[in-house]
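## Example record

The block below lists the input lines for one assembly entry, exactly as stored, with component labels intact.
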Amino acid sequence: MEKILTINNAKVSFENERNILEVIRKENIELPTFCYHSELSAYGSCRLCMIEVEGRGILPACSTPPEAGMKIKTNNEQIREMRKIIVELLLANHDKDCTACRKSESCQLQTLARKLGINRVRFKSVLKQEPKDFSTYSLVRDPSKCVLCGDCVRFCEEIQSVGAIGFANRGPNSTVCPSFGKNMNDSECVYCGQCVRVCPTGALTIKSEVSEVWNALSDPKKKVVVAIAPAVRASIGEVFGVPGENGTEAAGKMVSALRSMGFARVFDISFSADMTIVEEANEFVERLGNGGVFPMFTSCCPAWIKFVEQYYPDMLPNLSSCRSPQGMFGSIARKMLPENIEVQKEDLVIVSVMPCTAKKFEARRPELSMENRQDIDYVLTTQELARMIEESGLNFKELELSPFDMPLGFKTGGGVIFGNSGGVTEAVLRNVIHNKSADVDEVAAFDFVRGENGIREATVNAGGKELNIAVVHGLKNAREVVRVLRENPSKYDFVEVMACPGGCIGGAGQPVYKDMSVRKRRTKVLYDNDKTLELHKPQDNPYVQRVYDKYMEGKPGTHSAHELLHAPHFNRKRLTERPFPIYKPSKEKKLEIDVCFGTACIVRGAQKLLQQILEYIAEKDYKDNVEVDASFCFEKCSKGPLVKIADTVIEKCTIEAAKAAIDEKMR
Amino acid sequence: MEANYSKFDNVCRILEENSYDSAKLIPILQAVQEVYRYLPEEILAFIASSLNISPAKVYGVATFFAHFTLKPKGKHIIKVCDGTACHVKKSTSLIDAVKKELGLKDGQNTTKDMLFTLETVSCLGACGLAPVMLMDDDVYGQMTPEKVSALLKETIKSEGNIK
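Predicted structure tokens for the full assembly:
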């Protein structure tokens, strides 16, 4: 039976909508919200979506399920006044330096204040200016602009399963911050930046590198080159009202804009994405051949890498050792450009434009540098590029189309679809399974890895061997795949993970979106862009082959390819927590013992081990000179229990092994 | 050595007794606070990793409830009621008296010698005795600044005798 309710006197039918808000929005009535995101759980804290239900009074639409026969009013005098008061109260302790705020173009608080006709705040300002957190390379946290909607907290917890930030304190002292009020950089944050995307105000923003790039551009000695990531062409047009279609137009105008801003060369990261596929597919085939570690995890998403480094250090060998396309571009450009564009090594400045905030963090990884200089000097996000274009006064819409510079601007469709969740897998399959050129129709044979589900599975036949593949986006889904793999290690052979929902097109550096249709459109742009290109398989890119010929002995997987295109991954401590002192020596400290008390080590008997070590120290009269601490994870969980004696970490430590090591050091 | 170890051992026992269940975070924190008289940061991080929840969440719970403290507390806890009934009966003068007697500056709740911690609570449910305060588990009703001063002097004296 059809279910019907009444909204503002109009009869409306509904089906399985989770709440009244969804029914109302379906009717094209815009209810204001701060804390409601269709991707997240309903929280009901901002109280802006209040509606009147006849006989039941005023209710929050986001957390009330629809019922047949309800008579709903979305807009009356009382509700309007209530919304105004809510926004005014939020403004009363808000840092209102809006003109200088990075979020001003997408700030929901500003938009709402305007829509609700607020022309003065009736309440006294109770703003407490709090220090901003500039500690990370990716984001800036400004607590004075927080409206406590909790969107960031829920995204971090529910979609990414990281929980780097949370609510702390209560009442008027409530705040959103990392654990123990620390800096973001000392937390488990993986810098995906999705908190920035969902933050309705300027409390969380992207850390800008715009002025550094302008400075480099205005230095006459420097030659500044730029490389654009695949996903940027799918979204930059949104800012300037250039329709998406297949991305060619936006990309062409972007290249013109960058040239006129003074960049010496404009390259395409899709080129190095092709190279990543060739190298990564080769690594995969090598692993198949020599019985390497499976499944192989993709390694192009820097947030995913940090996630594995801090939560699953025992699975580091599963990660492909290939650098990301940005990483590969950096090392190749440093190697070939000085000669290629005639510039002194030290005067070459390399900028990348990324859909991603974590790429800023990635660029600073010490492994991605040469002779003490990071390969990529500056990382701009799509948003920052858009701002630079606006700043330079260019009328983006009217710009001519220009082609990318060669050779690092040539790409196949395989490199372009990298920006979509499933794109890497599809490109790898195009490489591994076919090795001859094929037209689009044949290439379309692998589009079964496309889609929107958080975890997608596929089985393909490669040379008589069944390959089981998983394509994952969202880190909570990645956690689930790891959980499954712990139970059944041979379930998958290849796992692609992108931290951001939708892949890079949904990255936090992209223009802010709230409507899920935006993500779908961007995905389509990249797939359509693939169709417009001449070549579709990364291995067909002639310039990739030329770079291999010139610098890497002609093929992937060689020693020099490893030097330029691969990088190690490291165990990373989740928290920069001090170890907990169990015992301090009374006299001169001669030996320090750390017993790991991470979860895995406790399960393996760390507690008993600690007790026995203490007994042994007492028995041997070492008490005056030994310090004993309990540490909270050496991040080598598969080899527990772990005990560090002086500088040596003893894996699978027994009391006998510990005794022997202590005796040796104390002798 | 034994003291620190036995406390840490206690934390492990508490976690075990609560079967490492993150739903039991509050009872776990209560028990751990009994052991340490406060919640040390390192121990909270340890609890978070043992329960498989984020440290930010544990920190959120630990800072939400007035019962929990992340700073070491004194031996004697003074709770002055500042609920409506006590407030109109001038509970603020009691708070001032405690601060003056113990030499507590603004923002400081615990004396340097770790003997006293001053807290205010919203209602002790003894409005008939307003203004009312607690020292440890003893209730003192119809207090005045003079009585506060006398009580503290006496306590300090008896503490001196113990020493």
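The two ends of chain B are 23 Å apart (CA to CA). Chain B has a mean pLDDT of 88.
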